[in-house]
Structure formats: structure tokens, C-alpha cells
């Protein structure tokens, strides 16, 4: 079975592509960055795509790649591509390339952090961080400071804890529609999820023990039935079908949700559900176009803890002789990947 996996330059796309290969799928590694390590290390199965924001050019390149590779389906793994796909259902259906994203409305709510917080504030089951208005900020800043984040975007770009008015003013000039919220000090978590729209969502929670640029570099799964049910309720309320990654904090007074990414998280390699993996189930549903999980998955879930450590490493690419055989192949050294 041949699958196009996009966004392989990011942690999410790379994890999905790697898992797919380990499961026996033929993967076309796609990304918009020509210097993406995933493309450079898979020269015979690499596909350079335009940015999703380029619209028609992106659509044509994706269609050409699918035809050349004889792909059975495509897995979108960047926020921009999921937004594009959710808004282009008719065109992608005509292309004959199965994919799986939430509705355009669900993607819009999850992509807009202000809209997401507002939506959660309308349901007493869910809690978002407290946001400060311009009037609130006329008073003295809280002793612990405030947390600043852009209204849209991923990876924690330009997010920071701010404790001075000078920093706050400078940040708001860069991000006039940004969010100013309370600083959360509880245990940060992510939950990799898979929801078909009819079954109970599969939820694998993990503690974010160390992060860099908004991505988990050390993460460890844990089992909390109450949290898992609450996450499942949130996905059902927003109707976030397909893969997703829910993020939040375990505060002393309860769970606070900060965002929902409408794709797997970068640490999804740790998302084992008993003897299977969420990516394995996702690919099985994606390639078969079925949208119902095996019943036995919900009957019993043996839980085991998985720790994922993403460490800095290097992959050395050796140029071969000027022939078609062996040119540009990746040769990892000992201790590298």
C-alpha cells in the first residue's frame, strides 16, 4: 500500500512516516523544505511540495505526486495543510486521493486560540486559561507574570512568560491580536487521540517532561481514566475526527485545556494503545476508508508506560561516485540516526 505523508520535516509527519514504513507501507516522504533532513535521507522516495498557502500550485503538485507514486491515500501532518484540506473537500474528492481531516468549522475553532478559549468558556465541563483584557492589564501584572501566545500558529513560536510592562508592550506591538493569559504551573500534558466520529475516541495521555520550541523532547505516557474521558468529551463536543493532539495542564483545581492540534503530536511515537499503536489504527482506517475501530480495542486496554526521548543527532549524507548506483544515499554513523 502506497501512502503520501506530508510535513515529514516536522516531528509529527516524521513520526507518522517512520511508523508507516515500520508497518510495511510504501511511503513517499513529502515536505515544502528542500533541505528537510527527511527528504535528504530518502532521496528515492522524497517529494518536494509547495506551501499549502500557494493553493492551486500545491494542489497540482500533490495530484502529480499521487499519480506518479500511484498513492492510495495521503496523510496531512502540518496545520496549514490540514486547514487547506478541510476547505478543499470537493477538489480533493475529485482528485480521488483519500484523506482524513475534521470539518472546516472544527479546524477553524482549533486553529484560532481565542475562538477555542471562548468555545470552552461556554461549556462548564471544560476550562481554558484565564485571559486578561486591556482593562485588566491597567492594573499591576500578577506576581507570576502573564503568558503570551499568538492567536494562531503552532510550535510555541513567540510564546513567552512576561513579567514586565516593557516586554508586554513590545510583544503586543508584534502581535496586536495575541492572547494574554494566566501562567499555568501544573503538570503539562499532551494526549494523542484518534476519533472516528462514532466510536469512543482513543486517548493516550503523556506528560511533557521537557519541551523545546513548544515540542516535547522528553515525554512519558500515563493512565488517568478521568482525564482520558474528559479529553474524549472535548473531541466529541468539537467533533474533531481523525488524529489530534490535545494539550493542557493538570492544575490543583482541575484540568485546563490550552489547545487542540488537528493532527498527531510530535511525540505520537509513544502513543501505544495496548498491543497496537494509534498511528497503526489511523493508517488502517485511512487506507481502507473505513471509519470504525475494531470493537475489541475498547473492551480491554492493557496499559504500559512508554518514555520517548528526542535527542539531538546528526545524519551524515555521503555523496557516492558519479553513477546512478549509491549516489546520495544516507549512511548513519554509530550513535546517529
Task: Walk me through the structure.
The protein has 337 residues and is of the alpha+beta class. The chain has eleven helices and 15 strands. It has helices at residues 11-22, 37-40, 56-69, 79-87, 89-95, 104-111, 113-120, 165-174, 225-238, 278-288, 296-299, and strands at 2-5, 26-31, 46-48, 73-75, 146-149, 160-162, 179-181, 187-195, 202-212, 215-222, 242-251, 254-261, 272-273, 276-277, 307-309. Strands 12-11-8-9-10-15 form a six-stranded antiparallel beta sheet. α4 (79-87) runs antiparallel to α6 (104-111) and α6 crosses α7 (113-120). The longest helix is centred in the first third of the chain and has 14 residues, at 56-69. 37% of the residues are buried.
Ends distance: 25 Å
Total E-strand runs? 15
Give the strand line-up of the largest sheet: 12-11-8-9-10-15
Share of helix, binned: 25-40%
- Helix count? 11
**Order of H and E elements:** EHEHEHEHHHHEEHEEEEHEEEEHHE
**Cα-atom Rg, whole angstroms?**
21 Å
Mean pLDDT: 88
Overall outline: globular
Q: What percentage of the residues does DSSP assign to strands (E)?
A: 15-25%
- Secondary structure class reads alpha+beta
Main β sheet profile: 6 strands, antiparallel
Low-confidence stretches: 320-337
